[in-house]
Automatic annotation (TrEMBL), chain A:
One of its GO terms (molecular function) is transmembrane transporter activity. Keywords: ATP-binding, Nucleotide-binding, Transport. The keyword ATP-binding applies. The keyword Cytoplasm does not apply. It comes from the Bacteria. It holds the Pfam family ABC_tran. GO terms for cellular component: membrane protein complex. Belongs to the ABC transporter superfamily. This is ABC transporter ATP-binding protein.
UniProtKB/TrEMBL annotation, chain B:
It holds the Pfam family FtsX. The keyword Transferase does not apply. Residues 254-359, 642-757 form the ABC3 transporter permease C-terminal domain. The chain crosses the membrane at residues 21-41, 247-271, 300-321, 341-361, 417-439, 637-662, 686-705, 734-753. It comes from the Bacteria. The keyword Glycoprotein does not apply. InterPro entries: ABC3_permease_C, Membrane_comp_ABC_pdt. This is ABC transporter permease. It is found in: Cell membrane. It comes from Ureibacillus yapensis. Keywords: Cell membrane, Membrane, Transmembrane, Transmembrane helix.
Length: 252, 768
C-alpha cells in the first residue's frame, strides 16, 4: 500500500525564550492511499497544528513531512500552493468562504485559479457535486443567505473539485447539529469509499467511529491508536463503544 | 484608558496614521500659505499704491499738447484733486546699455522720466521716494529681476554715461503686462537726453474721490482733450500689479482645496475601513451598554490628535515656505504693512481646516448609530449584507482571468470604499492634467489669438500714418511675405446711453487676414459693423447684436456689434471695424506680416528695422514671450510641480489604501492561500483593483479636467482680459505620458503596499 503522507518526528515550536514550548513533540504519522483516519485529543493537544504541518500550510521546526515521497521542506511556496490546489482538499469548522462571491463561485474558485479555459467543465462538475450533497438549488445565493450545514456542504464541494488524493477536515462537523453532522459524515464516508484518503480532526466519538484508524493525541504527541475496519454501514454502535472505551482507557 | 486605546491603534497602523497626518499637514500648509499670500499681496499692493500715489486716471499722449487747456480743464473740473503732465522720453532699446546688456531686444517701450513733484512717485526698494543726483540712473525693478543690471553698473544711454544707483518701483508700469518701463534720471540729465528720443506725455489726474472716475472719464472725453494713446485707470493699474502673484495664489488656492479634499478622503477611507472591520466590536460594545457617544469619542479624539499635529506641522511649514513665495511680491511691491497679521490669517485658515475635519469625522461616525448590536454580533460586517454583484459571477465569466475577475469583483462589491480612492485619483489626475493643458495652451502659437493678436510673424508699428503706404509698398514687393494687412488705429467719439461722449480707439483694416478668437460673434465685415473688446463691451454694457453710435467725420452713425473679443493690448480697451475714414488722425498704424518661412523672422526684423527707422518692427513670438514670458514660465513650473504633487498624492494614498485593504482582507487572503492561490495571485488581484479604479479615475479626471478644469483655467486666463477659452491639449502628454506616469506610480505603490500580503500566516487566520 502506498503512503500518501509520512510525518517523521515532527517538531513544531511556538513562542520565544521562556515562553517557548513544543506544540508538536516528535510526532510520527503515516497515511495510506484511500485511508480514513481521524485524530482525537483534548483541546490544545496539537491536533490542528498537526494537520497544518502535514498539509504543508505551516512549516515544521524539526523532523520532516513527505507528501507522495516529496519532502515538503524542500518545496517552494508556489509548488506548495499547487499541491494544495490539485492534490489536497480542506474543510474547516467554520465555513471559510469569500463574502464577495456566491456559493457556486466560492466552490469553483480554486479550480478556476489557473484553469479558465475549462470553465464550462468546472461549473458542470461543481453542479454535479452540489446536487450530490443536496444544495443544487443554492448556487446563486450569497453565503449569508444559507444555513451553516448548507455552507459546510458547499465547503465540501469546493474541497472535492480537484478530486484530491486526500481531504483534510478540522472539526468539519464541530459547528453543526447532530442531524447535519450525520449527513456530512455520510458524504465523507461515500467519498472515502470512492478512494479519497481522509484526515479528520474531531472531538466527536460518533465521527471518529466512522473512520478506520483513530490517533489519540496529548501534549503534542500521539499517545495511542485504535484500528477499526472500514465502515460499511453496519455495527455502528459497536464501533462507538470501542472508541468510547479507548477514550476512557487513556483518559481523554 | 482612552489614551491607551488610541496609542495602540496608532501603533498598529503607523503608515496609515502617518499618511493621514501628512495630508492634513499639506492641506493646512497650503491653506495657510494662500491666506498669508493674499493678506501680503493686498497689503503690499495698497502700501505701494498709497506711497507712490498712483494716478487715478492716466492718458498717454504723443504729438502736440496744449498744456494751458489741460490746466484749465483740471482747474474747472470739481472732481480733480491734483493734476500733472509728465514727460516720458521714449528711446530705442538699442540706445540703452546697462553694464554689458543692451536692451536692443526688448519689446518694452523703454523711456526716461524725472521724479514727479505731486504724485505718481517712483520709489526705491525701501519704499522711499527717490531723490536722484546728476549722473545717476535708477532702473525698473524688472531689470533687476531678470539680472540685466545691478547696482554700480555703468549705463550708457545714447552715448551718455550714467551709474546705476539703484532700482525703482513704479506703481503704474511695474508689471510685465504694462508695455512701458520708466527709468529715472535727474532733471539736468533729462534735459540733455531730451532731444535724443521722442517725447510722449503722461497726462495724470488724481481725483478727490475715485468713485467719480466714470463721470470724470466722460468729462475728459467730451472736452475733446488730448487722447492720442492708451488710457489707464487706477483699477487697471491695480489689476496689472496683482495679476502674476494673483495667479499664483489662485493656483495655490485651487491645489489647497484639492489637497484638503484628499485629506478628507483619506480620513473617510480609514474610518470606513475601520468601521467595516470593527462592526462586531462596536456591536458588542453597544450590547454591553456603552453609549454611541463613548465609542465615537475614541475615534474623535484620535482624529483630533492627528489633525492637531498635522495642522501644527502645516503651519510651521507654511511659515518656512512663505519667504520663497513672497519674494516676488516683496521685490515688486515691498514689505506689506499688515504682514504681521498675515500669520494670524494663516492660523485662522488652519483652524478652519481643523474644525472641518472634526465635523467631518463626526459626520462619518454617524454610521455607528446604524449598526444594530444583534446583527453585528451575528454577522460581523452587517453593513454590507448584499455584497455580491448580480450578473457578474465567476461561473459566467469568460472574459477575464480569475485573478482579474476577483480584483474587479471586489471593487464592484465595495463601491463605497473604492469610491473614496477613486475620488482621490480623479483629483490627482485633475491636478496633473489641468496645469499641463493650461501651459500647453498659453505657450502655443495660437494663444495670442486669445489676446487680440492674429497669428502673424512680425509687426511694424508707426505713429506716422502717412508713411504706412511706404511700408505697405515695400512689403508688397517682398517675395518672402505670404500675407500682410495694414491696421490703422484711430480715436472716435462714442455716444453713451445718456447722450454724453467718450473716446474709443478703433482699429480699422481687414480683420479677416489674420483672424483672432472671438469670445462671441464674429469679425466685422461691413461698413456698418463693429467688434468690441471684452473690457469695452463690459464697460459700455453692450452685447453682440446691440447698436453702437459713433461720431464719424462729424456725423453720428449706428454700427451693429458683430462680435466681442479678448484683448490684452492697449489696456484692453479696443474696437475693430472696417469702414473707411479719412478725417480722424491715426494714432498709430500697424502692418502685420506673415512670412513664408518662420526661420526668416529674425533677419526680416533687422532688415525692416533699418529700412523703416521711423517705425518699430517686432517679432511676435518675442513680443509674446516678453509680455507673457514670465507668466508662461511660472505656469510651466507649476505644471511640473503639479505632476510631482499629483504623483506623490497617488503614491501615498495608494500605499495607504493598500495597507488598509490588506489588513482588512487578511481572512480572505488566508482562505485563498489555503486553497492554492499563490502570493503572486494575491498581488495580481490587488494590482487589478488598483488599476481598475485608476482607469476609471483617469477617464473621469481627464474628462473633468477638460470641462471643469478648462472653466477654471478660463477664469485665470480672463484676468488677462482673454475669454472664450479652450484648452489646447497635447495628446501625447495628456493621453499617453500622464496616464502612463499615473499607472507606474499606482503600480509601484500597490506592489509595495501589498508586498506583505502574501506573508500572512494562513493557520493563524483560519484556525478556530
Ligand atoms: N500561532 C501560535 N502561537 C502560539 N501558540 C500557538 C499558536 N497556534 C497554536 N498554539 C498553541 O499550540 C497548542 C496547540 O494548538 P492547536 O490549535 O493545535 O490545538 P488543538 O488540539 O487543535 O485544540 P482545539 O481542539 O481546541 O482545536 C495550543 O496550546 C495553542 O495555544
Ligand atoms: Mg483545533
Amino acid at each position: 500500500m502506498n503512503r500518501i503522507i509520512i510525518g517523521d518526528r515532527i517538531v513544531k515550536t511556538f513562542g520565544e525564550g521562556d515562553e517557548q514550548r513544543n506544540v508538536l513533540n516528535g510526532v510520527s504519522v503515516e497515511i495510506n492511499e484511500g485511508e480514513f483516519v481521524s485524530v482525537m485529543g483534548p483541546s490544545g493537544s496539537g491536533k490542528s497544528t498537526l494537520m497544518y504541518a502535514l498539509s504543508g500550510i505551516d512549516h515544521v521546526d524539526d523532523g520532516k513531512v513527505l507528501f507522495n515521497g516529496k519532502d515538503l521542506s524542500t518545496v517552494t511556496e508556489s509548488e506548495l500552493s499547487d499541491l494544495r490546489r490539485t492534490k489536497m482538499g480542506f474543510v474547516f469548522q467554520q465555513p471559510t468562504m469569500l463574502k464577495n462571491l456566491n456559493i457556486l463561485d466560492n466552490i469553483i474558485l480554486p479550480a478556476m485559479r489557473s484553469n479558465r479555459k475549462n470553465t464550462a467543465k468546472i461549473v458542470a462538475k461543481a453542479r454535479t457535486l452540489m446536487k450530490r450533497v443536496g444544495i443544487a438549488e443554492l448556487e446563486t445565493r450569497d453565503i449569508t443567505q444559507v444555513s451553516g450545514g448548507q455552507l459546510q456542504r458547499a465547503g465540501i464541494c469546493r474541497a472535492l473539485m480537484s478530486s484530491p488524493e486526500i481531504l483534510f477536515g478540522d472539526e468539519p462537523t464541530g459547528a453543526l447539529n447532530s442531524q447535519s453532522a450525520n449527513e456530512i459524515m455520510d458524504i465523507f464516508t461515500e467519498i472515502n469509499a470512492e478512494g479519497t484518503a481522509m484526515l479528520l480532526v474531531t472531538h466527536d466519538a460518533k465521527v471518529a467511529a466512522r473512520t478506520e484508524r483513530i490517533l489519540f493525541m496529548r501534549d503534542g504527541q500521539i499517545v495511542n491508536e485504535l484500528r477499526l475496519s472500514k465502515y460499511d454501514g453496519l455495527n455502528f454502535d459497536q464501533r462507538i463503544q470501542k472508541v468510547a472505551s479507548k477514550m476512557l482507557e487513556i483518559g481523554i | 484608558m482612552f489614551f491607551r486605546i488610541i496609542r495602540n491603534d496608532v501603533l498598529k497602523s503607523k503608515v496609515i496614521t502617518l499618511t493621514t497626518m501628512i495630508f492634513v499637514a499639506a492641506a493646512s500648509m497650503l491653506v495657510s500659505l494662500a491666506a498669508i499670500l493674499v493678506v501680503n499681496l493686498s497689503g503690499a499692493l495698497d502700501t505701494l499704491m498709497t506711497k507712490a500715489e498712483t494716478p487715478h486716471f492716466m492718458q498717454m499722449h504723443s504729438g502736440d499738447i496744449d498744456i494751458a487747456r489741460l490746466g484749465a480743464f483740471a482747474e474747472q473740473n470739481p472732481n480733480v484733486d491734483e493734476y500733472q503732465v509728465v514727460e516720458f522720453l521714449g528711446m530705442d532699446g538699442a540706445e540703452i546699455v546697462l553694464g554689458n546688456h543692451s536692451l536692443a531686444g526688448s519689446v518694452q517701450d523703454n523711456g526716461f522720466s524725472i521724479q514727479n513733484e505731486k504724485f505718481d512717485y517712483l520709489l526705491d526698494l525701501n519704499g522711499n521716494i527717490i531723490q536722484v543726483s546728476d549722473g545717476e540712473i535708477y532702473v525698473p525693478v524688472a531689470y533687476m529681476r531678470d539680472n540685466t543690471a545691478k547696482v554700480g553698473d555703468k549705463a550708457v544711454i545714447s552715448g551718455e554715461e550714467f551709474v546705476v544707483a539703484g532700482f525703482l518701483r513704479d506703481s503704474t508700469m511695474n508689471s510685465s503686462l504694462s508695455a512701458s518701463k520708466r527709468f529715472l534720471v535727474s532733471s539736468n540729465d533729462f534735459a540733455e537726453l531730451k532731444n535724443l528720443g521722442s517725447i510722449e506725455y503722461l497726462i495724470e489726474f488724481r481725483l478727490k474721490d475715485f468713485s467719480a472716475i466714470g463721470e470724470f472719464e466722460t468729462a475728459y472725453a467730451s472736452a475733446g482733450l488730448e487722447a492720442n494713446g492708451p488710457t489707464v485707470t487706477y483699477t487697471l493699474f491695480k489689476t496689472m500689479n496683482a495679476v502674476s502673484d494673483g495667479m499664483m495664489i489662485a493656483i495655490i488656492l485651487l491645489i489647497s482645496a484639492l489637497v484638503v479634499a484628499v485629506a478628507f478622503m483619506c480620513i473617510r477611507f480609514t474610518l470606513l475601513a475601520k468601521i467595516e472591520g470593527d462592526t462586531r466590536e462596536i456591536g458588542v460594545m453597544k450590547a454591553i451598554g456603552m453609549r454611541i457617544f463613548d465609542i465615537k469619542k475614541i475615534y474623535l479624539v484620535k482624529y483630533a490628535s492627528i489633525a492637531a499635529i498635522g495642522s501644527i506641522f502645516g503651519y510651521i511649514l507654511s511659515l518656512m515656505f512663505q519667504d520663497v513665495l513672497l519674494e516676488n511680491i516683496r521685490l515688486y511691491m515691498g514689505e506689506s504693512e499688515n504682514s504681521s497679521y498675515a500669520n494670524v490669517f494663516g492660523m485662522i485658515g488652519i483652524l478652519l481646516v481643523f474644525f472641518a475635519i472634526i465635523v467631518y469625522v463626526n459626520g462619518v461616525l454617524g454610521r455607528f448609530r446604524r449598526i444594530s448590536a444583534a446583527e453585528a454580533i451575528r454577522f460581523g460586517a452587517s453593513q454590507e449584507k448584499k455584497r455580491s454583484v448580480k450578473g457578474f459571477s465567476l461561473s459566467s465569466n469568460r472574459l477575464f482571468g480569475t485573478n482579474i475577475f476577483l480584483g474587479i469583483k471586489d471593487v464592484l462589491a465595495r463601491k463605497k470604499l473604492y469610491a473614496t480612492s477613486l475620488a482621490v485619483l480623479v483629483i490627482s489626475a485633475f491636478i496633473m492634467i489641468v496645469p499641463q493643458n493650461l501651459y500647453n495652451t498659453i505657450s502655443s502659437k495660437n494663444f495670442i489669438q486669445y489676446m487680440g493678436i492674429g497669428n502673424y510673424d512680425l509687426r511694424i508699428q508707426t505713429s506716422e500714418p502717412n508713411k504706412a503706404d511706404e511700408i505697405a509698398k515695400t512689403i508688397e514687393r517682398d517675395e518672402d511675405v505670404v500675407n500682410y494687412a495694414v491696421m490703422t488705429t484711430k480715436t472716435f467719439k462714442v455716444k453713451s446711453g445718456n447722450g454724453s461722449e467718450e473716446n474709443i480707439k478703433v482699429e480699422l483694416g481687414d480683420h479677416t487676414a489674420f483672424p483672432i478668437q472671438y469670445a462671441e460673434g464674429r469679425a466685422p465685415s461691413r461698413n456698418d459693423e463693429i467688434a468690441l473688446s471684452t473690457i469695452n463691451a463690459d464697460e459700455m454694457g453692450k452685447k453682440v447684436g446691440d447698436v453702437l453710435t459713433l461720431v464719424i467725420q462729424g456725423k453720428e452713425q449706428n454700427l451693429a456689434i458683430t462680435g466681442i473679443y479678448s484683448d490684452v493690448t492697449n489696456g484692453g480697451k479696443t474696437a475693430k471695424a472696417v469702414f473707411a475714414d479719412h478725417s480722424a488722425n491715426a494714432i498709430w498704424t500697424i502692418v502685420c506680416v506673415a512670412l513664408s518661412d518662420e526661420s526668416l523672422v529674425a533677419s526680416k526684423v533687422s532688415q525692416y528695422s533699418s529700412i523703416f527707422d521711423f517705425a518699430k518692427t517686432s517679432d511676435i513670438d518675442e513680443f509674446v514671450s516678453q509680455t507673457l514670458g514670465s507668466t508662461i514660465d511660472s505656469i510651466e513650473m507649476v505644471s511640473y510641480v503639479s505632476v510631482a504633487i499629483a504623483l506623490l498624492i497617488m503614491v501615498l494614498v495608494t500605499l495607504l489604501f493598500m495597507k488598509l485593504l490588506v489588513a482588512k482582507d487578511r481572512y480572505s487572503i488566508a482562505v485563498m492561500k489555503v486553497f492554492g492561490f499563490t502570493n503572486s495571485d494575491i498581488t495580481t488581484q490587488y494590482i487589478v483593483r488598483s488599476l481598475f479604479v485608476l482607469f476609471i479615475g483617469i477617464t473621469l479626471g481627464t474628462l473633468l479636467a477638460n470641462t471643469f478644469g478648462e472653466m477654471l483655467a478660463g477664469m485665470v486666463i480672463s484676468s488677462f482680459g482673454a475669454t472664450a477659452f479652450h484648452f489646447e491639449v497635447n495628446p501625447l502628454k495628456a493621453y499617453l505620458f500622464s496616464p502612463l506616469l499615473m499607472v507606474c506610480a499606482v503600480l509601484i505603490a500597490t506592489i509595495i503596499g501589498t508586498s506583505r500580503a502574501g506573508e500572512i500566516k494562513i493557520s493563524e487566520h483560519i484556525k478556530e
